[in-house]
Amino acid sequence: MAAVSQSIEDQISGAIEEMTRAEKQLASHILRHYPMSLLGSVTQLARAAEVSSPTVVRLAQKMGFGGYPGLQQAVRDELEAQLVSPLVKHDRWAGDAPETHMLNRFADAVLGNLQATLKQIDHAQFDAAAALLADPNRRIFATGGRITLPIAQYFVSHMKVIRPGVELLEPVSNAWPPALLEMRKGDALLVFDIRRYENTVLQLVEMAADQGVEVILFTDPWVSPAAAHARFRFSAQIEVPSAWDSTVAIQVLVETLMAAVQSLTWEETEARMKRLEELYDRARFFRRK
User: Fold this and answer.
1) Which residue stretches, if any, does this entry annotate as coiled coil (predicted)?
2) What is the pLDDT of residue 55?
């Protein structure tokens, strides 16, 4: 099965329990301001985190980067990967392609993505996001970018059956003002944004967050800029042997989240589903044998 590398952010987060007090303080600062915190000098980072310069160097060495320059270069490589075009992605995969059928190569990558994604999901955060979406006092809005909007549409189609008060937002600026007018403090905005991150999505998230809307973000290992405004952020592995990224792991997270919400609202959801089936029968919506 294809190996999936961890992001620098995940590596630091995963190792934080084994760090000294000063290193934990430094790591916490880095994670709060990632990746910008790692783009300055050792002295600048040490001063901002209120630790010594040797602590910065020591943490970089403990993380396996040899020193601070190695850690910085790894972060720069990650940032560069965020902007990779489909053409460049294709050339990278094609150059290292093993002599096996595409079905096997692609399936191995997808399964590896899914396992790595599920391994890093915080269950408590996931449950809290489900509870937020199950709250009948909150309305739910969902949006995505050029590639991820269909996931938002899929989510909305199912959630409209599970509970009322669910709306899809098209990622075009002329649709925002009416939607933002309807958003109240405490409502939820589900956002899907993977590389190359779209300015329109970020702008909508910023305005919604300013109104007190709770943002739930599904993104990739390099993390959408919209994460700065998100209450909950779930990162999924997306790389596959293709010019385009895979959204399979994100789709699994979304379907699991909907199942979790459904379990919390089942009494109301069951009644809605029965009524919907009655309406389908009355309209002869589905083909009968």
Assistant:
1) none
2) 95
Burial class (CB in 10 A: 0-12, 13-18, 19+), 72: buried
3-state secondary structure labels for all residues of 246-267:
CCHHHHHHHHHHHHHHHHHCHH
Q: 283 vs 162, 227, 254, 272, 275, CA distance in Å?
A: 21, 43, 30, 17, 12
Q: Letter for the amino acid at 136?
A: P
Partner residues linked to 168 by β-bridges: 142
| pLDDT at residue 157 in the model | 96
Question: And the tokens for 106?
Answer: 């692609």
Q: Dig out the tokens for 12 from the structure.
A: 């630091």
Half-sphere exposure for 164 (CA within 13 Å, toward CB): 6
Verdict on whether the full-model pTM lies above 0.85: no
The C-alpha atoms of residue 5 and residue 109 are separated, in whole angstroms, by: 12
Q: How many Å from the N-terminal Cα to the C-terminal Cα in the chain? A: 43
Complete DSSP assignment for 226-246: GGGG-SEEEE-----SSSS--
Two tokens, residue 4: 């999936």
Mean pLDDT per 10-residue section of the chain, whose length is 289 residues: 64 88 90 82 92 94 91 83 58 57 83 90 95 98 94 97 95 79 96 91 94 96 89 92 90 97 96 92 79
Q: How far apart are CA 7 and CA 265, in angstroms?
A: 35
> How confident is the model at residue 287, as a pLDDT?
75
Residue 150: asked if its preceding bond is cis (omega within 30°), the reply is: no
Our measurement of the distance from residue 263's CA atom to the centroid of its chain's CA atoms, rounded to an integer in Å, reads 23
